[in-house]
Specification:
Number of helices: 10
Structural class: alpha/beta
CATH class of the largest domain: Alpha Beta
Radius of gyration: 20 Å
Strand content: 15-25%
Largest sheet: 8 strands, mixed
CATH architecture of the largest domain: 2-Layer Sandwich
Strand order of the largest sheet: 13-12-11-7-10-9-8-14
């Protein structure tokens, strides 16, 4: 029987606690082996909850424990350093989105990944939702014809207290951005997955509903793709009370809409609509959402990739591309001009 991979949570904040719960539910594919955090009280509390060792530094954890995978759950601007540190120690990595906040940092991650020969995957769990996977298959099988456009919305709401809950939240240097970099990047990743290689971005951003932050709480963009398809993006943390992610993909032979984690519309000139129960999560643990289940599937994909030597379904190329578009949105909004991604 194959032994479970031993996973260390690096960063014991809110997201780190989510990852710890996911790892605890991997059914033998992986087990929680350690918790790392510079905040000793927070780190020790999470480690005690799961009965695993606590370490104040990742280097100490890698030297002391047998760690196979590091789950990097730190504030965004610390991602690259933590990934490179793990790779240098011979540890594979799952890193939360975004890959980091600059393309130079993303390039450092990819250089270290190539040099180490190890596996790195960036969290983009919505790709593993049944409806998102169905939309991608429909495109691949030609059920939508030539894809002509896509519209994605993450119209969320975060109260002022959200940004005041950590001194790094809402900062350009550490958070790297606002509603798009931290919330809307998941929806953007779906749009990129459906429509392909982006070639230009024209955008506007605003800080309209929150005080004392350096980043946007609303972003809107038009993205042109290599195929000629046009994508529309809205990311917000200023849309009370908040709505589920909505993704619509339109083509010359069909349209499909994902909303509230379900398939709300499907029409194709060449393919039948799927049976209602085929895209529904089954056997969902109490208290878990569809997104939690998708998150777990990404973990299982990465574990399988590590064991078999294949690339994970979501690579650092995917993480870098999403970051590139986010930064292009910010540049276009700052300059008032389109940004060419092919230069």
């Amino acid at each position: 029987m194959t032994e479970p991979l031993r996973i260390a949570i690096v960063g014991a904040g809110v997201i780190g606690a989510v990852h710890a719960r996911l790892v605890a539910a991997l059914d033998g594919a992986g087990v929680l082996a350690a918790v790392v955090d510079v905040d000793e009280s927070r780190g020790r509390a999470l480690a005690a909850e799961y009965g695993v060792p606590f370490h104040a530094s990742a280097v100490e954890a890698y030297a002391t424990e047998r760690i196979d995978v590091a789950a990097v759950c730190l504030p965004s601007a610390f991602h690259a350093d933590a990934v490179v540190e793990a790779l240098d120690a011979g540890v594979d990595v799952i890193v939360e989105k975004p890959i980091d906040v600059t393309l130079a940092a993303a390039d450092r991650v990819q250089a270290a990944e190539r040099a180490s020969g190890r596996t790195v995957s960036v969290i983009s769990q919505r790709r593993f939702q049944p409806v998102a996977s169905f939309l991608r298959r429909s495109i691949d099988e030609g059920a939508l014809g030539r894809v002509t456009s896509g519209v994605v919305e993450s119209a969320f709401f975060r109260p002022q207290e959200y940004y005041e809950s950590g001194d790094w939240r809402g900062t350009a240097a550490v958070d790297g951005g606002g509603a798009l970099m931290n919330q809307g990047i998941h929806a953007l990743d779906l749009l990129l997955w459906m429509l392909g290689r982006p070639v230009s971005v024209s955008a506007r951003t605003g800080r309209l509903a929150h005080d004392g932050i350096e980043v946007e709480d609303v972003a809107g963009a038009v993205i042109t793709f290599e195929s000629g398809a046009i994508g529309l993006l809205l990311a917000s943390t200023a849309a009370f009370p908040g709505l589920p992610v909505r993704l619509a993909v339109h083509g010359s032979a069909g349209t499909a809409v994902m909303e509230n984690d379900g398939l709300s519309f499907f029409a194709s000139a060449t393919a039948p609509a799927p049976a209602a129960d085929t895209l529904v999560e089954h056997d969902v643990p109490e208290g878990w959402s569809d997104v939690d289940m998708a998150h777990r599937r990404q973990y299982l994909d990465v574990i399988d990739a590590i064991r078999t030597g294949r690339r994970p379904a979501i690579t650092t190329d995917d993480g870098r591309r999403a970051l590139q578009v986010v930064l292009a949105v910010y540049e276009s909004a700052r300059t008032g001009r389109p940004v060419d991604l092919t230069e």
